[in-house]
Amino acid sequence: MGDKITLNLDLRVLQGKKVKQLRKEGLVPAVVYGAGLEPVNVQAARNIVDKVIRDAGKHTPVHLVIGTRKEIAMIKDVESDPVKGLTRHVSFHAVNQNDPVTAEVPIHLIGQGESEAEKAGLIVLQALDRIEVRALPLNLPEALEVSIADLKEAGEQITLGDIVLPKDVAFVEHSTGREDEDDEEAPQLTDLVVASVYEPAALEAANDAAAGDATIDSEVEADNGADSDQTSQAEETKPGGKAQDEPKQSNVDANK
Known about the structure:
- The protein contains 5 helices and 13 strands.
- 20% of the residues lie in helices and 33% in strands.
- It has helices at 19-24, 46-56, 116-119, 200-223, 249-255, and strands spanning 6-11, 27-34, 37-45, 62-66, 69-80, 87-95, 101-110, 123-126, 130-135, 144-147, 157-159, 170-171, 193-198.
- The chain folds into 2 domains: 6-95, CATH 2.40.240.10; 102-177 and 184-204, RNA Polymerase Alpha Subunit, Chain A, domain 2 (Beta Complex), CATH 2.170.120.20.
- The strands form 3 sheets. It has a 6-stranded mixed β-barrel.
- The protein is an alpha+beta fold.
């Protein structure tokens, strides 16, 4: 991990619709919650909160200071103004530094432009840019790095198995419920492809084919009068894991 990220918070009195006044004054309302912890309403200057959000993301613990009280927390949720883009509310999930947590961390490719493959005109595309890991909060890496410098030919790949994990950090295995999960020949998490080498012509052909399929599907739906689904979104990955305690939605809404 890099430098410790610290955020000083003030206790917040205004709640509900009254927090509009805080936002007008350049303050961001927030809530801190966690297992065995009553939600605490807090606030801080927007420019300071935004810097913490940029530096910590949802995978780096933040050391919160609330008066004489100190907590280690993960940023659980950030609500932004859909028009102005300003941060409206932040939820912090307090964690125990001695209890492992699950968080999604970015994967960075290093050695880009240095491989024989790229020098020969081939293209290296990243297929996986983040992965869930489990570790103690203070051991969570800011990012995982893997080198692509040794790639030479089209078809070569970098997988999760090529990433050297920091000590006491592990990938999170998700059960699929399949009967062959324990089969040695079944796909393993470490077989997941992070990056692949492609011939430019083959990549262009694949992209053209994919675009063609998408066009055909769209035309069929249009002919049948189908409406496109513009509102469905994948559920956001939750730092700390879905099983960890969360405040009731009514409480969160009331605290904003």
